[in-house]
């Protein structure tokens, strides 16, 4: 789950870099700084996913990414797309971890039954 979520956050950070290039001509310095801070927070959050709070922070950053659509209108759509990818990464990651745990449990049972 962590690998998928970190990949989504990393790609979002790159997306924010491109959004900053679009915003540089028309946005104020504060809006650019907020976008830069959001890009940095996204990439740093990829490393914090080892803790449960990292997923909560990632979800908050998803909302912030959509909110940056106030500055660059295309970010409404791209933010919604990446929020969907974020949700998919969490759901599919949990399913994958459950399957992995079940396979490990089956392997351990087979190993303990053999003399």
**Biggest sheet architecture:** none
Structural class by secondary-structure content: mainly alpha
Task: Say how many strands there are.
Answer: 0
Q: Give helix and strand order, one letter per element, not per position.
A: HHHH
Tertiary shape = elongated
Pfam families: DUF4233
Transmembrane segments: 29-46, 53-70, 76-93
Keywords: Membrane, Transmembrane, Transmembrane helix
Tell me about this structure.
This protein has 115 residues and is an all-alpha fold. It has one domain. It has four helices and no strands. Helix 1 packs antiparallel against helix 2, helix 1 runs antiparallel to helix 4 and helix 3 packs antiparallel against helix 4.
Overview in brief:
This protein is mainly α and 115 residues long. It has four helices and no strands. The chain crosses the membrane at residues 29-46, 53-70, 76-93.
Please describe the topology of this protein:
Blueprint: H1 2-23, H2 29-45, H3 52-67, H4 74-113
Helix pairs in contact: 1-2, 1-4, 2-3, 3-4
Annotation keywords:
115 residues, 4 helices
